């Protein structure tokens, strides 16, 4: 019996050693966890401010977004005003041409904001509201599993002690074996969760460069949008200037 108890004690010491290694491994991720939480906060705040810069309604389709843009309303008002003034009105003609240009600008803005939503806002939201929180939840789950293991281990140790002082050795040994299985199962859950957490943390750390590209994408999209908007204006300005010249000639 003493030999069996010593063997159980040895197994307990081995299990404790594994748990110490687990704790040290978990603690080594503390810095990454703090960084992840900071990334979550700044990404959330940036996403919120970026949404406030949009003129269209986020989440709507292209047609609805285009209709709701202030530039679209301006375009419609100018075109309608030009129609009301009639074809013989120089002001009306100018308003109609400008109104059509504003509509094209609205179209460029709509496409730009759709791109920003798809390539920047959605990934930022995924990072701040899903990816990082899920990893942090795993950390809490791991802490719970460690507590479950501690409880299972305490019950098993108590059972092993009862074998020495008890009279029904066979029944107590059987009970200890069952508790040992529960403890091993609890430790396996800790190991699996720990490995998954470590893998997810590593994945997060390795993708930081990818996350940083979201903001490069934002600037590139803005540059492309302004170039296209400038092209719209440069294409319409000769027409407007020609009409302005006609107006001047008629006045002379």
From TrEMBL:
It comes from Takifugu rubripes (Japanese pufferfish). Its main location: cytoplasm. One of its GO terms (cellular component) is cytosol. Gene3D superfamilies: Arfaptin homology (AH) domain/BAR domain. GO terms for biological process: regulation of actin cytoskeleton organization; regulation of Rac protein signal transduction. Residues 169-196 form a coiled coil. This is Rho GTPase activating protein 17a. The lineage of its organism: Eukaryota, Metazoa, Chordata, Craniata, Vertebrata. The keyword Coiled coil applies. One of its GO terms (molecular function) is GTPase activator activity. It is found in: Cytoplasm. It comes from the Eukaryota. Residues 14-252 form the BAR domain. InterPro entries: AH/BAR_dom_sf, BAR_dom, RHG17/44/SH3BP1-like. Keywords: Coiled coil, Cytoplasm, GTPase activation.
């Amino acid at each position: 019996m003493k030999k069996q108890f010593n063997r159980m004690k040895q197994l307990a010491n081995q299990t404790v050693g594994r748990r110490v290694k687990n704790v040290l491994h978990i603690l080594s991720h503390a810095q990454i966890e703090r960084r992840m939480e900071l990334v979550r906060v700044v990404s959330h705040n940036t996403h919120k401010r970026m949404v406030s810069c949009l003129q269209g309604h986020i989440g709507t389709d292209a047609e609805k977004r285009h209709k709701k843009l202030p530039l679209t309303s301006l375009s419609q008002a100018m075109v309608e005003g030009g129609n009301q003034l009639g074809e013989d009105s120089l002001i009306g003609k100018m308003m109609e041409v400008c109104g059509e240009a504003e509509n094209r600008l609205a179209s460029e803005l709509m496409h730009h904001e759709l791109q920003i939503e798809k390539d920047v806002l959605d990934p930022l939201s995924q990072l701040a509201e899903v990816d990082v929180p899920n990893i942090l939840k795993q950390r809490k789950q791991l802490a719970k599993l460690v507590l479950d293991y501690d409880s299972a281990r305490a019950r098993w140790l108590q059972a092993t002690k009862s074998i020495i002082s008890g009279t029904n050795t066979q029944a107590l040994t059987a009970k200890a074996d069952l508790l040992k299985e529960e403890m091993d199962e609890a430790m396996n859950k800790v190991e699996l969760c720990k490995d998954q957490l470590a893998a997810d943390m590593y994945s997060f750390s390795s993708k930081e460069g990818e996350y940083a590209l979201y903001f490069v994408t934002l600037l590139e999209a803005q540059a492309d949008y302004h170039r296209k908007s400038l092209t719209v204006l440069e294409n319409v300005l000769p027409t407007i200037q020609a009409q302005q010249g006609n107006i001047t000639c008629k006045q002379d």
